[in-house]
Amino acid sequence: MRVLLTEFRQESNSFSPVESDLRFWQLNGWTLEASELYAKHKSEESALGGMISVLESPESFNVELRFGPAFYTQSGGPVTQDVIDAYWSKLKAALADAEHLDAILISFHGALQSQRFDDVEAEIVRQVREKVGDSCVIGASTDLHGYISERLIDSLDVLCGYQTYPHVDLAETGARTARLVLSVLNGEEFHCGYAAVPMMVSAASYTTNSGPFKELITRAQAMVVSGRLRDFSIYQMQPWLDIDHPNSTVVVYAATSDEAQNCAGELADELYGMRHDLTADVHTISAIAERAASSESHKPVILVDSADSSNAGAPGDSAAVLDVLMHDYPQVRAATIIADPAAADAAFAAGIGSTESFSLGGTVDPRAPRVQVHGFVRSLHDGTFIAQGVGSVGSDIDLGRAAVIRVGNVDVLVCHAISGNGDPQLYRAFGIDQQMYDLVVVKANTSYKAGYESIAGESYLADSPGAAASNLLSLNFTKSNLAVYPWVDDEIAKMPVLLRKVSRKVGHGHRHNRAN
Ligand SMILES: [Zn+2]
User: Fold this and answer.
1) Exposed, middle or buried, 103 (CB in 10 Å: 0-12/13-18/19+)?
2) What digits encode the pLDDT tens for the residues 107-138?
3) Gap from CA of 110 to ligand 1 centroid (Å)
4) Ligand 1 mean position, distance from CA 270 (Å)
């Protein structure tokens, strides 16, 4: 059996002014040829790595691997057409080279928006389907934060999303996808249940480590253990996507259409039912600084500036916290990070030990405050470090040229671009030991929690401006119908479960028989 693997993965942020063009993808990720995919992912804890390990395991003895392009980059503004054209032309060539294919496995994020298409994944799968026909089984893995449309689920056979947040099951998700696709190839039949859930909540308001969302995931896992389900994915659509009809989603696979219907319905009800408990608890920057100023703990207060998280597509160029600290809380010893290439280069020009005036922040996002400071250049760096954060341990991170500039009692790590946002090494590698400060700014949503657990005192989510603001009502949606929570709050939301039979189609018949 011939199976082709490919990757096209980015989380879009409609509110981000960062242009996700080919140069951005190459600088902040990779755009690999088909011939490079295997070496890149074979031993990686990635979805493709998980797919490869299943497909190369003894139980899949008759599988022959083929490869397509592998494109990945960190979150940014809507992707430009040149990237889609580049990916598609390489994929088309790989499909033509592979001749007959039994299956295609794609690693997506699930929330990719382009300047032309709101649902790039559905568009890509539609075009792939056109090329390979109905008998080829198409499976995709995605992030938990994907936007899963009916159109996407209609054109695919198998879809599996991460079941953890922070995401620590990337490889396992790829493995689940590959196993389900292999079962279809081996002649098994099962049923998919899909329910669109009309809600969109801040990514900072839940985790699978504790709380109601964890309970929901645990309940779904029990459905798998008891045999009611083959697989499930519960999507919390990431809220910085301005598209026509947004929705969160439940996708399940079961042996019978009844179980697919019942389980998807139960999980969707429970997800929608917890919406009021998933409100981000935001605090003003001043209130958090006040806590840091009066804290008696010897551990730093963490100010979570997720609105400016480059993990969620923001440029990381906001000086909003520095602005408040400089003017109102000069006594607070703090560490923060700002992406500002010109300021980093100016610090290099000035040299270590000099005091200069710098303009910091507001270089990309017009919402980000820009501040003028007198700063002392403490240290200069090449900007590289080795990640220790969960899910990316050991990977090389490069911020571009970086400098630590001291402004009053604040150490500002100024760099070209921020990456590894939630990793404590992001500061430590540049001589900033978090424990020496009253307040530390972390520009991440939830990914920081594991790494900061042992060193942090209290953590507060800031109501700060930015492309990834947690206060969704503050974002300027223009395309969305906003017929979802928190804009609409229906006690009894209609969440019909759509059912599809999943089986290998022979010849050119209809792929999906709509049951019920
Ligand atoms: Zn995610």
Assistant:
1) buried
2) 999 999 998 999 999 999 999 999 999 999 99
3) 9
4) 20
